[in-house]
């Protein structure tokens, strides 16, 4: 039966047997399954894995793209990754000295007796080291300022500085029984030196042994980056910021440590923490620093102490005023925006700025506006216009358009505040500061009348920030 | 006209063979006729009829030389044919065989004129009176002839040579002959009204660059500048633009002597700054006209409305390396020719 043999061999072929097995003697063949003629078994089997790299190999000498990580030809990035917060720390770093800059031999420091003297006008004066430490503690130096260009911090005592010095003098002198509270807002163009003027005021206050409380950036108070809590028993509802206040207290402590250590607590503050009898103000503040839950009561107690008779004048300052003249980023329990003035710290500042509360020992409430980082604040802009018109004794004082919406609370605060307009430097002042740049070795040019005038003009009529840009920074 | 002289010459030559009836054929312009037809037949065409362009009165009427009738030239009896066997008429100019001899006639008459006046004393080209010759396109339209560029330039060489004859000895016929090749408006024909300083001591200057236009008012002062009511630093973020805006004052060391009020519109920031350059320079020239050479050296009195300039090397200056001076041709930031511009005070 040759046909049966042929069929069997065929079926074996269909099962993908080797020719060797087919040629084996019949007795060695395994028992065939019933469906030996089926082709479904090989078809149902897993398909053979496809060969990788089926595309044609690249020609010899042709370059191919290799984007595999760690493959040949790819350089491994072995550089260290920045730790969390490291980049921000680098960005916000304050550098106050430049070892490559020359030391200016003729540079005189400000000192306590002559800090408010008029003879400094138009001169560059150095800031003493302890004051620099205090200013650094209250974050008066800002990263974008040009302190890192020079050997050590020094400032030009410009006309507006002298104006502030005169105001500080007024606040110190006893007039009758109560001392004056000076309230001012610094306004001016971008880069005209408003923040530096604020720093000069703080430096003079430190030199004159005032207690300095500086809110370095208003935006940080209202942008909801720190926790907030309802102030118990407050009416209207107010919110405290314990972490922020605790940090502020530590800044106050660091900057004013020497003065706070000399004064002891005289009132009997109600605090959530026990306070030693006859404690100094330093210990009081430390209480708030160590436990942020108690920071707001401690701040209130500190303020209470500082406004007792016989205490030094207070310098209360803030930069970036426009941020607190609108709703904050915080939300109330009803998910409605919290007005910035409902935050206790802001309210404290604003009450003093508006003149609702005064400083019985004299002092100054100083706020600087910003032109580079400021939300639109029609109330502030308008109030500044009104104040300028009032100060220049113009006949037609601008009036608010009743059909426009405005933040009434902000308008109310800024109703009768005075402004100090920070404009451009005069040519004499420009010459003084350019000479300082040249003596520091940061400007290599012959400083003469023509040079000073040219830079003064190119800096937009003596804008001090621009002057620094065109003389020192844009030097190639 | 030269070509008429030539055709007259040819005619005289033919007349010497015999008296001919002078038949003049007026050549009308073929293109004009064609376009007229086209406009009549194509009623849906949106193209405008361009006949006016070609039939403008700038084109000259042209009369070709009449054909020579040799049959009549000898006076009958088949003498003409006999004459032809012995005589070969060679035209004086090769243009006799061309369709349109105007250019060749012009060229020949000019060279003939130059030959005649070649011995007159000449002055250097730089001292010759400035003449704006017609461009080749204008000449082509005038003659209605496709003149080749090279030939036209040859003719211009002759014209320039004629222009170099000493002005006191310039023959009137040369003046008359050159008149045909001059543009209608010559340089220096249009003189702008001189600027005035008004009762408040202001001088006005207008400048343009790309799509910006600027008006600058200059008063005596101490170097203040307000552009559209803003200070220089507020208006121009880039230091380079600020320097451009007051470049005329800076280049002449007048920055502390004047105040600038600028009004500038249109275009981009750099265009506005460079428009101001020109405006301030012009206003400064009203105050001090003697500064013109200094401003020319400082390159701020030439208008440049073109946005593009051929790339050329940048010039850096040792004293202020970041400041690129404008180029020689205009107030752009590139410098042609690669020299350094040294601005010196005229005072």
Automatic annotation (TrEMBL), chain A:
Domain of life: Eukaryota
Record region (Disordered): 44-90
Stored InterPro entries: Ribosomal_mS29 (IPR019368)
Keyword Transit peptide among record annotations: yes
Biased composition (Basic and acidic residues): 78-88
Amino-acid biosynthesis among keywords: no
Membrane spanning residue stretches: none
GO cellular component, one term: mitochondrial small ribosomal subunit
Keywords, sorted A to Z: Mitochondrion, Ribonucleoprotein, Ribosomal protein, Transit peptide
Cellular location(s): Mitochondrion
GO MF term (any one): structural constituent of ribosome
Family: Belongs to the mitochondrion-specific ribosomal protein mS29 family.
Protein name as annotated: Small ribosomal subunit protein mS29
Automatic annotation (TrEMBL), chain B:
GO cellular component term, pick one: mitochondrial small ribosomal subunit
GO BP terms in the entry: translation
Keywords: Ribonucleoprotein, Ribosomal protein
Pfam families with a match to the protein in the record: Ribosomal_S9
Any one GO molecular function term: structural constituent of ribosome
Segment forming the signal sequence: none
Entry-linked InterPro entries: Ribosomal_Su5_D2-typ_SF, Ribosomal_uS9, Ribosomal_uS9_CS, Ribsml_uS5_D2-typ_fold_subgr
Keyword match Transmembrane: no
Family annotation (SUPFAM superfamilies): Ribosomal protein S5 domain 2-like
Entry keyword annotation includes Ribosomal protein: yes
Domain of life of the organism encoding this protein: Eukaryota
Assigned protein family: Belongs to the universal ribosomal protein uS9 family.
Identification of the protein by name: Ribosomal protein S5 domain 2-type protein
Species name: Massariosphaeria phaeospora
């Amino acid at each position: 039966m040759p046909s049966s043999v042929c069929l069997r061999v065929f079926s074996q072929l269909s099962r993908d047997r080797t020719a060797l097995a087919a040629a084996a003697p019949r007795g060695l063949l395994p028992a065939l399954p019933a469906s030996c003629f089926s082709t479904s078994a090989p078809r149902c089997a897993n398909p053979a894995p496809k060969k990788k790299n089926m595309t044609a190999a690249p020609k010899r000498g042709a370059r191919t793209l290799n984007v595999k990580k760690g493959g040949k030809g790819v350089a491994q990035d072995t550089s260290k990754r920045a730790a969390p917060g490291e980049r921000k720390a680098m960005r916000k770093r304050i550098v106050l000295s430049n070892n490559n800059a020359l030391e200016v031999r003729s540079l005189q420091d400000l000192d306590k007796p002559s800090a408010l003297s008029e003879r400094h006008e138009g001169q560059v004066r150095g800031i003493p080291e302890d004051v620099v430490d205090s200013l650094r503690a209250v974050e008066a130096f800002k990263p974008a300022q040009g302190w890192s260009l020079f050997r050590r911090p020094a400032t030009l005592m410009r006309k507006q500085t002298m104006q502030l010095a005169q105001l500080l003098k007024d606040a110190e002198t006893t007039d009758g029984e109560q001392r004056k509270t000076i309230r001012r807002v610094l306004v001016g163009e971008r880069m005209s030196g408003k923040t530096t003027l604020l720093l000069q005021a703080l430096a003079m206050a430190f030199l004159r042994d005032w207690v300095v409380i500086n809110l370095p950036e208003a935006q940080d108070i209202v942008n909801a980056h720190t926790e907030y809590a309802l102030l118990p028993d407050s009416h209207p509802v107010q919110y405290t910021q314990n972490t922020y206040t605790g940090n502020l207290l530590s800044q106050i402590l660091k900057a004013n440590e020497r003065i706070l250590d000399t004064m002891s607590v005289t009132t009997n503050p109600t605090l959530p923490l026990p306070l030693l009898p006859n404690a100094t103000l330093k210990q009081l503040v430390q209480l708030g620093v160590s436990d942020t839950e108690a920071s707001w009561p401690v701040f209130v107690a500190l303020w209470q102490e500082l406004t007792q008779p016989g205490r030094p004048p207070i310098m209360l300052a803030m930069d970036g005023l426009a941020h607190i003249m609108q709703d904050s980023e915080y939300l109330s329990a009803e998910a409605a925006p919290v007005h910035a003035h409902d935050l206790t710290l802001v309210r404290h500042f604003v009450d003093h700025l508006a003149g609702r509360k005064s400083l019985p020992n004299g002092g100054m409430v100083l706020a600087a506006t910003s032109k580079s980082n400021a939300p639109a604040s029609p109330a502030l802009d308008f109030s500044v216009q009104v104040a300028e018109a009032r100060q220049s004794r113009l006949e037609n004082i601008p009036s608010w358009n009743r059909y426009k919406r405005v933040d009434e609370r902000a308008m109310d605060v800024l109703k009768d505040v005075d402004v100090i307009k920070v404009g451009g430097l005069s040519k004499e002042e420009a010459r003084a500061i350019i000479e300082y740049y040249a003596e520091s070795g940061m400007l290599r040019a012959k400083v003469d009348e023509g040079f000073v005038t040219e830079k003064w003009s190119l800096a937009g009529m003596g804008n001090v920030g621009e002057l620094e840009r065109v003389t020192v920074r844009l030097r190639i | 006209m030269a070509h008429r002289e030539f055709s007259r010459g040819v005619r005289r030559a033919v007349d010497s063979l015999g008296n001919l009836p002078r038949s003049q054929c007026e050549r009308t312009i073929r293109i004009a006729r064609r376009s007229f037809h086209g406009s009549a037949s194509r009623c849906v065409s949106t193209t405008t009829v361009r006949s006016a362009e070609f039939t403008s009165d700038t084109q000259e009427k042209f009369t070709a030389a009449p054909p020579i009738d040799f049959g009549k030239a000898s006076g009958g009896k088949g003498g003409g044919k006999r004459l032809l066997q012995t005589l070969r008429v060679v035209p004086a100019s090769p243009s006799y065989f061309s369709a349109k001899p105007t250019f060749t006639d012009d060229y020949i008459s000019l060279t003939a004129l130059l030959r005649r006046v070649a011995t007159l004393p000449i002055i250097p080209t730089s001292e010759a009176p400035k003449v704006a010759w017609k461009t080749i396109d204008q000449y082509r339209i005038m003659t209605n002839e496709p003149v080749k560029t090279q030939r036209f330039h040859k003719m211009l060489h002759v014209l320039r040579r004629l222009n170099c004859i000493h002005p006191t000895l310039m023959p009137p016929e040369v003046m008359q002959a050159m008149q045909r090749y001059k543009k209608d408006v010559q340089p220096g024909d249009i003189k702008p009204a001189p600027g005035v300083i008004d009762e408040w001591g202001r001088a006005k200057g207008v400048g343009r660059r790309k799509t910006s236009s600027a008006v600058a008012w200059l008063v005596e002062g101490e170097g203040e500048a307000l552009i559209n009511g803003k200070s220089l630093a507020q208006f121009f973020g880039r230091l380079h633009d600020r320097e451009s805006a007051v470049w005329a004052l800076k280049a002449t060391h007048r920055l502390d002597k004047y105040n600038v009020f600028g009004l500038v519109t249109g275009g981009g920031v750099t265009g506005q700054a460079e428009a101001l350059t020109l405006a301030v320079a012009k206003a400064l020239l009203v105050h001090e006209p003697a500064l013109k050479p200094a401003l020319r050296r400082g390159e701020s009195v030439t208008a440049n409305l073109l946005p593009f300039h051929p790339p050329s090397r940048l010039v850096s200056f040792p004293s202020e390396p970041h400041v690129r001076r404008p180029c020689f041709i205009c107030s752009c930031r590139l410098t042609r020719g690669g020299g350094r511009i040294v601005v010196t005070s005229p005072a």
